[in-house]
Design a protein that fits this description.
The structure is a single chain. This protein is of the alpha+beta class and 95 residues long. It contains two helices and six strands. A six-stranded antiparallel sheet has the order 2-3-1-4-5-6, covered by helices on one side. Strand 4 and strand 5 form a beta hairpin. Helix 1 runs antiparallel to helix 2. It is globular. The termini are far apart.
């Protein structure tokens, strides 16, 4: 599964903590605030999100982009210490 994490940290301490966690999970920094990985599965991602939740605060924002999730595209966002997930898929073809 392809996973991309985009960070908008509220402070330098949480930025460093999140970067350290992502590095441990084999994420590679591809841009200033963007990390990517292709080797995680859904259960590892759940553990990663718990770890990230432990080092973030109200002012940190983070988005996780995943593909494929049941042949769909998923966006998970952490904002104001709350996780929200959106699954985007194509409409079934008409016959």
């Amino acid at each position: 599964m392809f996973i991309s994490v985009v960070l908008d940290p509220g402070g330098i301490d949480s930025a460093k903590a999140i970067a350290a966690i992502l590095s441990r999970y084999s994420f590679k920094k591809v841009q200033k605030a963007c990390w990517e990985c292709m080797s995680l599965n859904e259960s590892q991602l759940t553990v990663l999100k718990r770890e990230i939740d432990g080092v973030t605060d109200y002012y940190d924002t983070l988005r996780i982009y995943q593909f494929p999730v049941n042949n769909n595209f998923a966006i998970t966002e952490l904002r104001h210490k709350k996780w929200q997930r959106c699954i985007l898929g194509s409409a079934p073809a008409k016959k």
